[in-house]
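queue> pop job 88
queue> type: inverse folding (structure -> sequence)
queue> payload:
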């Protein structure tokens, strides 16, 4: 049994926390699982992550940024995600191709028709079985970041984060069977419960019997 689950959302929405919590639930069930993240997840990917995230005086142009994300994703898909799915494992990924549509497409303004073939090449056509969107208003996103040192994307203004948030909701509406949209302002335990209920349905459909929590 293989299952590919991705988490998406604006900065500070709590997706990384929920991705880790979901990983632990799979482990308690005795289900083989790995947790990956973008950009990164491989040695080369981590080098690219440093370039993309670091605040610098001469940041990459939008198209360069797009291609760097694609390079990191291609390395992750080929070296980590597909091999583990082939072994019948559950793969959870903190961000995936939808992030590129949201951030580089709607956020940076790159034409989606330009992004689509690049995403397809990097992913080799791989799509998640389930994408979990933790939806958070842009104002709340920036507020949650607080005074901590911010990376290049966290430093973007309210308009940018609003475009990203709106784009996620648009993407989710286009593929409602793949996306699970959850209000990120809900208590963490409630969010985790909603996620596990959905995941349990997918596992049941694959004939996987779960232990009682």
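queue> result:
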């Amino acid at each position: 049994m293989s299952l590919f689950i991705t988490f998406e959302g604006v900065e500070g929405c709590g997706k990384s926390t929920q991705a880790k919590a979901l990983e632990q639930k799979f482990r308690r069930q005795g289900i083989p699982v790995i947790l990956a993240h973008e950009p990164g997840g491989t040695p080369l990917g981590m080098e690219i992550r440093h370039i993309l995230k670091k605040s610098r005086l001469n940041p990459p142009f939008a198209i360069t940024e797009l291609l760097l994300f694609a390079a990191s994703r291609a390395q992750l898909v080929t070296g980590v995600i597909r091999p583990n799915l082939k072994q019948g494992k559950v793969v959870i990924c903190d961000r995936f191709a939808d992030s590129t549509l949201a951030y580089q497409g709607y956020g940076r303004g790159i034409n989606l028709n330009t992004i689509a073939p690049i995403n397809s090449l990097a992913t080799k056509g791989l799509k998640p079985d389930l994408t979990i969107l933790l939806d958070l208003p842009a104002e709340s996103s920036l507020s949650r970041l607080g005074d901590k040192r911010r990376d290049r994307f966290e430093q973007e203004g309210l308009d940018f984060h609003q475009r990203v948030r709106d784009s996620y909701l648009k993407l989710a509406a286009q593929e409602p069977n793949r996306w699970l949209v959850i209000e990120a302002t809900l208590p963490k335990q409630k969010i985790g419960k909603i996620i596990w209920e959905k995941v349990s349905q997918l596992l049941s459909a694959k004939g996987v019997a779960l232990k009682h929590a």
